[in-house]
Amino acid sequence: MLSPRSLLSVLLALSCVNTSPTHLDTANVTFARASDPKPLHNNQLGKRDGTLIVQRDDSGYYCAYIVTSSLSRFKLAVDTGSAYTWVGARQHNPYVQGFASRATGVPAVIKYGGGLVTFKGETYNDTIALGAVIVNHQGIGVPTEVNGLAASIDGILGLGPTAQTEGTSSDGRLIPTVMDNLYSQGAISSPSLGIYFTPSGVGGVGLLSFGHIDRTMLRLTSDVQYVPVTKFFGSENYFWSVEATIMYGDSMPILDLAPGMVDTGSPWISIASAAFSNYATATGGILHPPGQLTITQDQYNNLQVLYFVIGGQSYHLSPNAQIHPRPSESSSSNSEFWLAVQVTEPGFPLAFSLGVPFFQRYYVVLNSGSYEIGFASHIYTDSTTN
What we know:
The chain is mostly beta strands. The protein contains five helices and 22 strands.
């Protein structure tokens, strides 16, 4: 039987393994089962840096690996637009109860994107490892039914505000998120999450920094500028939301000041129909159902910068940042580009959603203690390698 210290070593080793074929090395990892019910502590192996590597999946989502107390590893989509974490979507990699796993008997149901992805199952409490940090008694969902999730992904790592778990559990209770438990258990010094994605053309890798800004690994080119989370319905933290105006070029308004959200779970920049109509007119793009635009090479050559003005600061997306990576997400024609801005109705009261294309160009900090969101540019903000 492994001691808590030995099991912690295994959890950390497994959660930090790079699983690409050229880097996977399990020669020095001991796989074992344990029955010791004692909680694990982050300080048992010394102070941890709280950084977790993420990688862009072919589905367009950025994913991270977590390890449960059964020593099972799960590839989860990083999602700041939801708050419930669940695993076990793929039949060949099911959730297995480990020494710290306890069934709650409480059913859970979630719909994502208006029902495009659905989860139905039960919440378990378990110990999980995220890189070098350990979370005890974390509520995680185990599905009996999943629809719409990419076949390459095991589940979702919910990093949205706690209030978003409202209505998930049949008993009506809010479910503490991974960030809630990391902070309350003393695993991190601040309830903040730093998110750093790189564009697909330079590797599509990134980092999640729990509790701190990991300046040793980031190449930021500006200070982090913070704005308060926009309030809705008397709550400051139902969404990771900000107010912004959107401009195309130096003089064409796309959207007047309106609230929106930052959402790593969306592969798009999504804007409501009226604003999208302005953008489509400005770019001259051809609309394809359900709401995507293509432009020609000549139109791309004339594409203007798209500005998001948030808290008095301007954050721009260059023409290269406004297109999807090529050729995997373009048409067969080399002279046609798919734009990364799509029409959607993000849902009242939201008028836009800043998804993966924005996160690839800006470092974003989410702080659930001060209810603030921070933004900083980095060396890939103006990269021309998409």
